[in-house]
Amino acid sequence: MGKPSSKLRPAAAHHRSGDDESARGRLLSAATRLFCKNGINATGIDAIINEAGTAKTTLYKLFGSKNNLVHVVLETEGKQWREWFIGAIEAAGGSPRTKLARIFPALKQWFRQERFYGCPFINAVGEHDKDQKQLRAIAMRHKRVVLAYIEKLAEEMGAAEPEVLAHQLGLLMDGAIVAAMVSRDPGVADTAGLAARSLFPALKPGKARRTSSVAQQLVAV
Questions:
Q1: What is the distance between the alpha carbons of residues 103 and 206, in angstroms, rounded to a whole number?
Q2: Using alpha carbons only, what angle is made at residue 89 by residues 139 and 192, rounded to the nearest 5 degrees?
Q3: pTM of the complete model
Q4: What is the arithmetic mean of pLDDT over 36-64?
Q5: Of 138, 153, 154, 158, nearest to 73 (Cα)?
Q6: 89 close to 102: Cβ distance less than 8 angstroms
Q7: Is the backbone of residue 39 left (phi > 0), alpha (psi -120 to 50) or beta?
């Protein structure tokens, strides 16, 4: 039949690219759900490809290994979570204090979701060797972005030590996430929120506050 016409090659290449993107999306979705629900170590390659409806060779072609898939899942989940979190805090506008006060109501909505399985980063580090540097590095990159956003709001609010307040709120967030995962009680967010508000500095009338422009910069990290 001879070689295909050159006019057909871009279309064929585009079709293959589309198939790869579709398979990649299905594999990421399946791996994310199974890793979060059952744990990374308890989830085998066969379970992922069965749920995704792909071949094992496709997984290895697109990701190379299960470890690489785990890293991509965590990076993707982290970016999506930050986009959601910062979007939830910024959506209705308001003062930096008002935005910080939205942290735990936003978490409560997350805790109420049927597929809330806790923080994938805490879970991943928790179930692996604590000397596993790659997973911890991915987790810490995610945490630094979240804390930087909170620290910026704390600074705008007039906190004497914005970095300290950000870390205090971060610890309350982590505690609430773990407590909600274990207890399945979204109300733990309310208790954490009460503790968080007790850390906010007293309002100083007349003090100028800068408008935060950090949100859009951080969600893309």
A1: 25
A2: 70
A3: 0.81
A4: 95
A5: 138
A6: yes
A7: left
Exposure class string for 185-211: b at 16+ Cβ within 10 A, else e: ebebbeebbebbeeebeeeeeeeeeee
- What pLDDT band is residue 202 in, cutting at 50, 70 and 90? confident
Question: Rounded CA gap, 148 and 125, in Å?
Answer: 21
Q: What percent of the chain has pLDDT over 70?
A: 83
Is the predicted pLDDT of residue 86 greater than 80, yes or no? yes
* Mean pLDDT for the stretch of residues 186-202: 95
Residue percentage of the chain with pLDDT more than 90: 77
Q: What single letter denotes the amino acid at residue 180?
A: A
Cα gap 112→106, rounded to integer Å: 10
Token pair belonging to 128? 């692996």
Say if residues 45 and 59 touch (Cβ distance below 8 Å): yes
Written as six digits, the tokens of 123 are 């879970």
Please, are residues 54 and 27 in contact by the beta-carbon 8 Å criterion?
yes
Q: Can you tell me which residue has the tokens 């050159």?
A: 6
Q: Residue 40 carries which DSSP code?
A: S
